[in-house]
Amino acid sequence: MSPKLLIEANKVEVFLLIKDTLDEMINWISQNKSKFFGGLFGFLIGIFIVFIGFFKTLFIIICTVIGYVIGSYNINKEDIKGLIERIFSNR
Questions:
Q1: What are phi and psi of 90, to 5 degrees?
Q2: How far is Cα 74 from Cα 2, in angstroms, rounded to an integer?
Q3: What is the pTM of this model?
Q4: DSSP character string of 14-53
Q5: Contact yes or no for 19/27 (Cβ under 8 A)
Q6: What is the pLDDT of residues 18-29, one digit of tens each?
């Protein structure tokens, strides 16, 4: 077997191994979504704490939760208009 054919055969084997591994990972993630996202969330919080500090990370989390809560409400244009008028009305 020539060296070129050997290299091509190895590339195919490596590709199939990577494909099988990725298929297994995707299958595991689909069966364990809460574990995966919990671990990912913990990892990201740890990275944020290491690089930007505890209180800045806490501030980001608080802003994210507030944004999530506000975004979860069904707000239409009339509600926003009324809120702005109440905030900026002359008293």
A1: -80, 125
A2: 67
A3: 0.56
A4: HHHHHHHHHHHHHHHHHH-HHHHHHHHHHHHHHHHHHHH-
A5: no
A6: 899 999 999 999
